[in-house]
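Why run this: before we spend reagent on co-expression, it is cheaper to look at a predicted model of the complex and decide which construct boundaries make sense. The entries below are exactly what would go into the expression plan.
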Amino acid sequence: MSAIAFRLNGEMRSIATPAETRLSEILRDQYLQTATKVACGIGRCGACTVMMNGQAVNACLVMAWQIEGADIVSPEGLGAFETARIVKAALIEENAFQCGYCAPGFLMALTVLFLSNRQAGEPEILSALEGNLCRCTGYHSILRGALSAANRLRPGAASETGDPS
Amino acid sequence: MAGLPHPGSLEVLHPASVQDALDLLQGDARLVAGGTALQLEWARGLPKPTRLIDLGRIPGLKGITGDAAGLRIGALSSLGLLCSSERVAHHLPMLQAAARTVAGPAVRNLATLGGNIVARTGCLLPALLALDATLEVTGRDGRFREPLSGWLRRPADPAEVLEAVHLPVPDSQSRWTQRKIGLRAAFTPSVIGIAGRLDCHDGTIVAARLAVGGGIVVPRRLYEIERRLTGQDVAGIDWPALGSALIAAIDAPDDAFRSGRYRRMVAANALVQGLRDAGRSRLAEGPVPQRSAELEMPRTPTEIRLSRTDQPHHWHVRPDMEPKVSGTLSYLTDRREAGMLVGRILRAGRPHARILSIDTRAAEALPGVVAVVTHRDIRGENAFGIVVQDQPAFCFNKVRYVGDPVAAVAAVDAATAEAALALIRVDYEDLPIVTDSEEALSDAAPAIHAGGNLQRILHFSRGDVAAGFGAAAHVVERRYETSRQMHGFMETEGGFARVEPDGSLAVFVGGQHGARDRLQLARILGRPEETIRVVTSPTGGAFGGKDELTVQPALALLAIKSGKPVRLQLSRAESVISGIKRHPMIIRMRTACDAAGRLIAQEVDLLADAGAYASLGPGVLETALEHVAGPYVIPHVSTRGRLAYTNNGVCGAFRGFGANQMTYAIECQMDALAELCGLTPVEIRRRNLRAQGSPGFLGQTVAPSERLADMLEAAAASPLWDDPGPGDGEEVIGTGMALNYQGNGLGSLVPDPAGGRLRLRADGLIEAAYGLDEMGQGLLTSVQAAVSAELGISRDDILPVTGDTALAPDSSSTSASRGGYVVWRAAQLAGPEFSARLTDAAARLLDRPADGLKLAPGGIADRRSNSGRLLMRFRDLAEALAPEALPSVTVAFDFPKTEYTASNARYIFAFGACIVRVAVSRITGAVRVLDIHQHTAAGPVLDVAAYLGQMEGGAIQGLGFTLTEDARMLDGAYVTANLDTYMLPGIRDTARSLSVVALEGLDDGDGLGPRGAGELGIGAITPAIANAVGKAIGQTACKTPLTVPFCPEGLLDAIGARV
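The model came back. Tokens follow.
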């Protein structure tokens, strides 16, 4: 068991853990960052979506050995991203979620989408959310929130983002 | 105390070259790229290797190079790269389309092209074959290139590394098609995938490539068909003949989800349609659900449309929304603290067996294990169950289903607890099993319980059914069958428990009725209820599936035995095998009407599979039978309902509680009878609708303010009925409706007490305490809505306190659509006195007469003033009062009931009409729901967003039940192990448009307030979709699907060959 060094929400971390420990377990059990939820454990629900090197990944599918040198952003770290704050505000205003267990995963997936594509509209939103399951809402409230976020983020809209690069 | 070094801990090596990787490849070592398949494989029980050889750091294996002649794609390139690459989009659109169908976007960012290929089951293989992919491989003897088609034909050589894929760029004139047929619209396992390409020159096919593969279908090219097409004139292709030839040429096996025949049919259909419709590429997005502005849902002047934009002044953000979205809300399964142990439960893993012995000594001896519990640790009754106590907390003499708990372990960490489970030795003697509910009731069936397998039988009859049928002009007799739906709450069952310093026990597990959980725990543990605190909120979804005890007994026993806090959360796989499901039902329904379409007689025979234990099954059976006539009047009725024990998974409460299954049957019968009578669906319902004020189905008095006629007329006015046209060629379109008539509350025979409390806290907040649970339905926002409206204060003045037996009075269960009423009624009952106590206290402090004061947002105001100016803030008032003088009013009342006691009957009902428009694919038989319009009447809407959420969420849960969801069991084992094959609807499956309106008004003098919204959204969805599908595929109700979830193969057969 050798130490694995990676960046978590902007801070360098080093952790000694078995190579196959999942990132979801590292976040929840070692760093007590429980916003990352686990609802299937096999990459089939999206509740554990985190950002790794700028991309959305399922934390339950990422093993400790795969995060060596990686830049990880968990939901706890999204506050540093203006885009995430705008998306979050839009989702909240729309009452996008019910039980909320899937919500951080959706926020993460949408944030990653809009970080890479400020112009993303409904087709891109639907594609980006294909891997996130919600049991309570039937998705329309989430879509309304996401479309509202898209409007706020569209170039020319009032808000300009100052996201960490 | 330290835990074990992790068993099976693996070593990961990072070679810098392919040669090094091959040199390291010894023993059980395994090459790994993205690694996304590993968790699935390990979850299936495949062994973990001791060594992984990571290919990720080898230079040259990632990235896309090449030009217009051909591309080289490194094997370690992620599928995400294939999806986003402009070069791939430009030169190999078929590959990009295929890549977009693999898993979900986050998985694709890890998964690689090479991994998809070497698995030999990957969804890219048909496209790669059709694109003439050549693999660049390094083996023991060096690097070589080999066509993918040939590589697939020979056995895999483990001592090879796939380095890259070479793909010639097809001629721009080639027409191509690609499609993955799955179990739902996207993010799905492959049923079969197809890819086809015709290279043409002056209208003549010069080269053809057709391939199938994916999932269990062996990937291969269809050479015989390719030869047949080559040289042909494209315009002269006999497409139907090609389809037949394809069906004969494709080889595809059956599995539990789809037949080989279906796979062949859809693959042939997709290839024919795709190649025929001239290169019209189908991108992976599939059908994009656009909202249909042209079909704006109409509403009557008294209905309100529910949305943020329509109700801006009634739209309130839930108090728990921000912490939920940001993830700061701590669910009960999120608790982590120093010294907390981790619990795991040992499940039977077999459907029926006698327990000969349980030996836990080796597990107890394992370092890091702190407690092991079995039935021997139970001091009270080893039996629980909300209706009958037939379920052991831990099995002692036998196990009755795969998920039965036998023992549990608490250890210092999860790995140690897991290892300890493997050391518990249980000797079983397997017993014969019975898994068919009909067979379970035969004399020859093995008895699952001592009293036999007939858990319950219920009869009801009225009038003279034989005479009724004798006088009938039309009779429809059908058998409806419904599936084992899983609740699929995102947060699986779990939480934590601890013994408090005073010796009391605290159990924190998401639930739906803390006081009842406490009662059941007290019985099991043999200790007084007062020594147990149960916290049940918040919980990440329940839908009935957390109404019964889940992991509470194991957690409680582990905490008591270890003396330490213990947390435990079921994995999804364990939740699937142990958790409660919706009862599969077989409903035989025979319904007669006269020539004018007036119902005369009905016979119903219902058989429900309880699984191994009763739980709330008897209640579900009653409720189903109470809804056999829907909202219609049938003079002569005879019903029988039976609930059978089997060795299947346990069934129990689930949103709708049996009513939605029965509504499916009766509402489909209505459409079938309408057709026989030559009436429209609306007209036959109009002729049979129960009259307001008439007795309920069982003869009971029912509550006023029935709104069925309004619902029906709203449905009649729907624009969805307008002829939608034939569809775009691939799909056939149809519209259907169903009425909804959902009983609220637990019924006349079941104690249904409720209560609540209002209290001024020392910090000036007004606490509204209810023993109800926030499961996502919006309890907290509803509490704020009801209490603020009653007291005339702001929502922000109110602190809802729920789901904690120590902090809130018992309000009974959060189920049966009763929570909304309880919230409102408690506020209504407690409000005036609480208000008076506050103004009295303020009057004394302000030295003003109390009758000149009122409550206002934020505090106490002058009764005559509308300025909003406060005389005193609540906070000031609270601070001025001694703690014991802070006003507190507790109320208790019963949920309204009918006086009828011959059987369990409902008094309050909620009403709805659901109109649905669907498109059924001629290629796959898959149903796409275009529009759902829900008209609802459940009294005053407490909170617009919460009500809307219940309707929308219920609708799509119903859509899933109807179209994709089924926890399949075979021989007592779940075939569906996790969310990879249990198909919850995804964002691509949801209805394209979803509109909800509410009719709020009550009759004069109706003091019953808001009706339940919790189950109204789901109730009529299945029959509305069924009736729409019947219309779509045959323009006849005779083709309405009779089995849920609908079988695409059956729908394809019903449509007939029209591709």
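DSSP finds 31 helices and 41 strands in chain B. Residues 753-894 of chain B form a domain with the Aldehyde Oxidoreductase; domain 4 fold (CATH 3.30.365.10). Bring this page to Monday's planning discussion.
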